[in-house]
Structure formats: structure tokens, C-alpha cells
Design a protein that fits this description.
The structure holds two protein chains of two kinds. Chain A is α+β, with helices and mostly antiparallel strands. Chain A has a single domain, classed as Alpha-Beta Complex (Sufe protein. Chain: A), CATH 3.90.1010.10. In chain A, a hairpin with a 6-residue loop joins strand 1 and strand 2. In chain A, helix 1 crosses helix 3 and helix 3 runs parallel beside helix 7. The longest helix of chain A is centred in the last third of the chain and has 27 residues. Chain A is globular. Chain B has two domains: about 140 residues, Aspartate Aminotransferase, domain 1; about 260 residues, Aspartate Aminotransferase, domain 2 (3-Layer(aba) Sandwich), CATH 3.40.640.10. In chain B, the strands form five sheets. A seven-stranded mixed sheet of chain B has the order 4-10-9-8-7-5-6, sandwiched between helices. Chain B has a four-stranded antiparallel sheet with strand order 13-14-17-16, with helices on one face. In chain B, strands 1-2 form a two-stranded antiparallel sheet. In chain B, helix 4 crosses helix 11 and helix 12 packs parallel to helix 15. Chain B is built from 15 helices and 17 strands. Chain B is of the alpha/beta class. The chains are: A alpha+beta, B alpha/beta. The interface between A and B is medium-sized, with 17 and 16 residues.
């Protein structure tokens, strides 16, 4: 049985509680970013861009067997690490589950307060875009 | 060489200067603040902060109209700044000093009055390839409205203006040249005196954006012979929301008014309104009194230290930073030339500027990353943005070393 969104959030909060310093947290996020699977070039186009701040983020989503699957990439590695966590939390869930997720882990691991306003807006823009995909897939489901 | 360097620091006494800037005592993310974002805004000395507090706690009154003591005192302080600014940039008269909200408003004022009145269809405005968006967009708007054309002086690989290209752009349709004195994104000092002279030879008017130069270089608007000179208070130790438009008196006199309202009028009837004299003709409504008053102690502070001393110290920091950062593998300076003040802008191969900015911030080091509101320039160098460290009189060699160490460490983690 796969994790619920809340369970994955709790896992990430646990992992972050092991770090003593922000240096360690950032090194971990950077490592996640480096490990994120690259997005195929054909997806790196204007319509897949998330309007964030200083870095470019591409986000695409698939809908299979009632679940939404995300792929994303950025030209900045810390952003990539953050996206990697968002994908880990939301990918593979139903549109309803995704739409109901409160994503509180972002606060609990200190990212909202630690990243400057403009940058965490970028993070929130990504969450919003992921939820938009979920909403779109949900309406397709009802139409069919 | 080494001895001269130490003496220069010693005479300047940066330790004493730092004590005047209370914010420099704070910590960021558990580290002492290293503030290297001075091209965005400078920190404020205690005397400026005190002037703001004093005004609101002792002197607050509307200026020019009141007959009571408070109004008279506030007006005297408010107008004292105008005299200080006049001397600071060596304007011929105090009427040539117009208070604005900042550089951007100053440029817009000239665009919406002088340019709107004087640009005819087919006329040309020349800007440069290294302008801040504030010195691009107002001209684009007016050129579109008046069917005029915008021309751009190109920039070479070292981040300098191509003066030969500028000469070929000048012609009998050129009405206005608007360029920055110092590039905010690279620190390049442009040969504005020559630019002005060449423009005047064909009868064009020149606006100099002094936002990045006024803190660092001696400004003498009469010697430059510019027609307009604009700058912001907050980049020269003063408060935000306050700026200056200098204009030659005959040009300002001939210009239509900008905003209408109180203060800028002489007489109002429903049939016709006559306008006030300079400089009040351009200062509609209750002005930014407190910030105007607190600009004077900022100017006094700079005068007390001396621009020559400030420049020498900043050059020392810039040279040291340039030398240290060059040793970072894959680092490329954007605007690598010998005519610069205070700004070091760079990219590092394989590393995104935003990532570097976040990791430096984590060490309490404040730099600017991004396009610096100069997207056309970033496109010219084919970079999405740069990392920019910009120095001020209160920065130290040790802080530059912290930047170099922080960068080396960031690059190691990020690559």
C-alpha cells in the first residue's frame, strides 16, 4: 500500500529533523536536485513553464489509472531539490487527494520562512500549478 | 604597494564609519551581516535615521503654507535639502532641483513633459544597451505615442559603450540621448561628458541617469553640461521614496507641467490656472517631507567623509574582490573593464546565480542575483542573470574575503 500524502509529508519532516544546521539541509536539497530525473527536452517549452522568480521551472503531468504523475525540472539546483520533494509528496495520487493536500511540510521544514518571499512565491507557484493539473484531470474524469 | 594599501584603509577608518550604521550590527542566519547589495540600496547612517525620527516627533507639519512655527521650521529644513543638493551636484541655482520619488519618477517626468511635447513623428531617442528598465520603458512608451524611434548604442564584450556606433547613430532627427552614468548591472562608468558634447553638437538634449554614480563619483552638472540629471536618495545613504531631477532652468521653464494639484499652482479659477515658479511647478501635492529633510544629513555624511576617500576605499574593495574571485574556476566577470565603480557582476559556469544567492544568504552575505532590471543587457551577454556584489564605504576587505570563501564553498556544493 502506497503512502498517503500526509504520510510522505511526515517522512520528509522526520528526515529534516535529523539535520543540525541549514548547511546540512541545503546540502540535502541540492543532492535531491542533482538526483532528479531530467525532463526530456521536448517538454521544455514555453507552455510548460511555471512563472516563478529567477529560475526557470518546467512542469508536466500525466493522468493514468485515476492518478496524477508529475515530472519537472529547473535550471537551478536548489529549486530542483524543492520540486523533487513536491513530486515525492503529490505524484501518484488522485486529483482529489492532491487538491485537498495542505502541503504543510513546506512550513514545517522551515522552507517558507527561510527562503525569501519572492523565492517561496516561486515554490507556491509550483504547488498551485500542480493543483491546477489535478483540477484539470478531475474535470476530464467527470466529462467522460 | 602593500604598505600603501594598508595606509589607505588606516586613513579612511572603516571601523569608525561602520559604527555610524546601526544595521551593520545585526546578524543574518546566525552570521554577522555582510551587506554587498549596495547598488540596490545603501544602508543609512544614524544621522539620517535620527532626522526622520526628529521630524515626526518634533517638527511634523505641512510645508510652505502654514503660518505657524512648526510649518516654518519644517519648511526651512525641507528647503535646506534643496540647497545641499544644489551644492552636491554643483547646479547653477536651487530652482533647478526638483524633488521626485526617485530616479524612475524623474525619468518619467521628463518623458511625459519634455519628450511628449518635443518628439515629432520620425524623431529619434538614443539610449544605450546597458540601461536599467527605468531608462528604457518610459522612452518606449513616449516613442510609441509620438511615433518617434528608439535607437540603442551597442555594448562591447567588456561591457563598454561602442562610441563609434554612438557617433553614427547621431543625426539631425536625434532629439534626446538618455544614458546611465554608471551601469547598475556591471559598474561600468560611461564617458558621459563626451556623450553629452557629441549630442549637443547636433542640438539634442541629454538626460543622465545618475542613480549609480552619485554615491561614488564627483558630480558637477555644469561641467558635464547635461540637460537633465536624475538620481535617488536611497542609493546615497538617504531615505527611500525621495529623488532628484536636475534640469537646466531654461529647459524646465519651457516644459509643460507634469502632475496637477496643490503647490504647483499660482492661481486657480475654473477658467484658467496659472502655474507656480520653479521648482514648485513640478512638485504637486504635499511632498515627501520627512524623506526630503533626511536626505540632507546623508549628503552631509558623504561630504564629511569625502567622495575621493569613498572612491579610493571602494576601488580597493573592488580590486581585491576582482582578484580573489578570478581564482574561482569557471567564473566570468560581466563587464570586465578598467572604468568601473563599486560593482562586480559575474556568472559561474555550471552554477545558477539563484542557487549561489541562496547559499550566500545562508552565510549572512547579501548579494543580488538575477537580471538587475537590465534584461536587454543580460541577453547581450547570453546569460539569464548574474551574481552582483556591490560595495560601499562601510564594507571591509574581510567582508570581501568572506564573499570569496562563501562563493568557493557554494560552487563546490553546487557542482
Amino acid at each position: 500500500m502506497a503512502n498517503t500524502i500526509e504520510q510522505t509529508e511526515a517522512e520528509i519532516i522526520d528526515e529534516f529533523s535529523l539535520f543540525d544546521s541549514w548547511d546540512d539541509k541545503y546540502e540535502y536539497i541540492i543532492d535531491l536536485g542533482k538526483k532528479l530525473a531530467p525532463l526530456p527536452d521536448e517538454y521544455k517549452k514555453e507552455e510548460n513553464k511555471v512563472k516563478g522568480c529567477q529560475s526557470t521551472v518546467w512542469l508536466v503531468a500525466d493522468y493514468r489509472d485515476g492518478n496524477v504523475y508529475y515530472q519537472a525540472e529547473s535550471d537551478a539546483v536548489i529549486v530542483k531539490g524543492l520540486i523533487s520533494m513536491l513530486i515525492r509528496v503529490l505524484s501518484g495520487h488522485t486529483p482529489d487527494e492532491i487538491l485537498n493536500a495542505n502541503m504543510d511540510f513546506i512550513n514545517k521544514i522551515g522552507m517558507t520562512s527561510h527562503l525569501a518571499q519572492t523565492r517561496s512565491n516561486g515554490l507556491l507557484a509550483m504547488v498551485r500549478q500542480m493543483k491546477n493539473y489535478a483540477l484539470a484531470f478531475k474535470s476530464i474524469k467527470f466529462d467522460a | 604597494m602593500e604598505t600603501a594599501t594598508i595606509n589607505a584603509i588606516h586613513t579612511f577608518d572603516v571601523t569608525a564609519i561602520r559604527k555610524d550604521f546601526p544595521i551593520l550590527n545585526r546578524e543574518v542566519k546566525g552570521h554577522p551581516l555582510v551587506y554587498l547589495d549596495n547598488a540596490a540600496t545603501s544602508q543609512k547612517p544614524q544621522s539620517v535615521i535620527d532626522a526622520l525620527v526628529h521630524y515626526y516627533s518634533f517638527n511634523n507639519a505641512n510645508v510652505h503654507r502654514g503660518i505657524h512655527s512648526l510649518a516654518e521650521e519644517a519648511t526651512a529644513d525641507f528647503e535646506a535639502t534643496r540647497d545641499a543638493v544644489k551644492d552636491f551636484i554643483n547646479a547653477a541655482s536651487r530652482e533647478e532641483i526638483i524633488y521626485t520619488r526617485g530616479t524612475t519618477e524623474g525619468i518619467n517626468l521628463v518623458a511625459y513633459t519634455w519628450a511628449r511635447q518635443n518628439l515629432k513623428p520620425g524623431d529619434e531617442v538614443i539610449i544605450s544597451g546597458m540601461e536599467h528598465h527605468s531608462n528604457i520603458v518610459p522612452w518606449q512608451i513616449i516613442c510609441e505615442q509620438n511615433n518617434a524611434r528608439l535607437k540603442v548604442i551597442p555594448v562591447n564584450d567588456s561591457g563598454e559603450l561602442l562610441m563609434d556606433e554612438y557617433r553614427t547613430l547621431l543625426n539631425d532627427r536625434t532629439r534626446l540621448v538618455a544614458v546611465n552614468h554608471v551601469s547598475n548591472a556591471m559598474g561600468t562608468v560611461n564617458p558621459v561628458k563626451e556623450i553629452i558634447q557629441l549630442a549637443h553638437e547636433i542640438g539634442a538634449v541629454v538626460l543622465i541617469d545618475g542613480a549609480q554614480s552619485t554615491m561614488h563619483l564627483d558630480i558637477d552638472v555644469q561641467d558635464l553640461d547635461c540637460d537633465f540629471f536624475v538620481f535617488s536618495s536611497h542609493k546615497l545613504l538617504g531615505p527611500t521614496g525621495m529623488g532628484i531631477l536636475y534640469g537646466k532652468k531654461d529647459i524646465l521653464d519651457a516644459m509643460p507641467v507634469f502632475a496637477g494639484g496643490g503647490e504647483m499652482i499660482k492661481e486657480v479659477t475654473f477658467e484658467k490656472t496659472t502655474y507656480n515658479e520653479l521648482p514648485y511647478k513640478f512638485e504637486a501635492g504635499t511632498p515627501n517631507i520627512a524623506d526630503a529633510i533626511a536626505l540632507k544629513p546623508a549628503i552631509d555624511y558623504i561630504n564629511k567623509i569625502g567622495k575621493d576617500n569613498i572612491r579610493r576605499h571602494e576601488d580597493l574593495l573592488l580590486n581585491h574582490a576582482t582578484e580573489r574571485l578570478r581564482s574561482i574556476d569557471g567564473l566570468q566577470i560581466i563587464g570586465d573593464n578598467d572604468h568601473k565603480v563599486s560593482v562586480l557582476s559575474f556568472v559561474i559556469s555550471g552554477v545558477h546565480p539563484q542557487d549561489v544567492g541562496i547559499l550566500l544568504d545562508n552565510k549572512g552575505i547579501a548579494v543580488r542575483t538575477g537580471h538587475h532590471c537590465a534584461e536587454p543587457l543580460m541577453n547581450r551577454f547570453c546569460v539569464p542573470g548574474t551574481i552582483r556584489a556591490s560595495f560601499a564605504l562601510y564594507n571591509t576587505i574581510e567582508e570581501v574575503d568572506k564573499l570569496a570563501e562563501g562563493l568557493a564553498k557554494a560552487v563546490k556544493i553546487l557542482r
